[in-house]
Structure formats: structure tokens, C-alpha cells
Amino acid sequence: MAEVNHPFFMAGQWSGEGKLVEKGLAYNEQISIAQIKPNLYLYTQTTQKQIENIPLHAETGYFRFNPNNGVVELLLSHPFGVCEIEEGVISQNNKLELNSKEIIRTSSAKEPFVTKVKRIFSLHDNTLSYDVYFATNTYDMKHYLHCDMKLKQ
Description:
It is a single chain. The chain has a single domain (about 10-150), classed as Beta Barrel (Lipocalin), CATH 2.40.128.20. The protein is mainly β. The termini are far apart. It is globular. The protein has a 10-stranded antiparallel beta barrel with strand order 1-2-3-4-5-6-7-8-9-10. It contains no helices and 10 strands. It has strands spanning about 10-20, 25-35, 40-50, 55-65, 70-80, 80-90, 95-105, 115-125, 125-135, 140-150. The mean pLDDT is about 95.
């Protein structure tokens, strides 16, 4: 079977403002999603504190498209010693909802341990938005992050 190349609505360089939902802390964010092979995209993300421009977080990984069943896989690594595997599907309205399948951590990772993650990406009116929900070993699933970004020109 020939490999089908799926165009990805999130491909490109994105920049915008996010916030920690509970605390209201705002941050700047940049996401880069670049195709490196058919059905495979490199994903990098960085955030900075708004006023001081101090780095807050970064993550990197890959989006993989399974041409046999339409499932999107996200393989993601964090600098605090956690790796995630998430899976989901893209709906017809440019929405991707991913749920964690596996979360592993290094022996030096610190509590609270993330136990479950849900990410929702959507594109509407040229704005890429995402929401991140997660649970840890100390609390149930809750809405943690929200961000709205525009495609860089």
C-alpha cells in the first residue's frame, strides 16, 4: 500500500499568549511544527514569562499519522524527566483531541507525578488554540493551560 501524505492543519510557526488557568499567570509561547517525512512532523514548543522574557518550559517531540486508521500519535519529551505518548483523531472542523496512552518518567522526576493528560488543539479564524488538562497522583483531571496563537508570517 502506498504511503498517504496527510497535510496537517497545525503545520507552521505559531506565536501567542497562554495562561495557567487556575493562577491566571500569562506567558508567551512559540510552537513550530515542520513536516520531516510523509505522515511525520517535528514539534517544538517554548514558553517565556511575559515581562522578563525568562524561559519557563520547553517540550519537543513528533506527530505521527497512521495512514491505516487515521489515528494521530504525539510522542513528547519534557525537560523535567517525563515522556508522553498520546493518541487521538482530527475532526472535520480542524480539531485534534489527544489522550495519554503512556506516561513514563526518569528516576529523578519529582512529585506530583502526572498520571493522565488530555490536549485539545483547534484552528478557528486563523487562531490556533489549545487546552491542556491533566491529573497527577495528588489530584484528579483539571484544566491546566489555555493558549491562543497566530501563524507567523
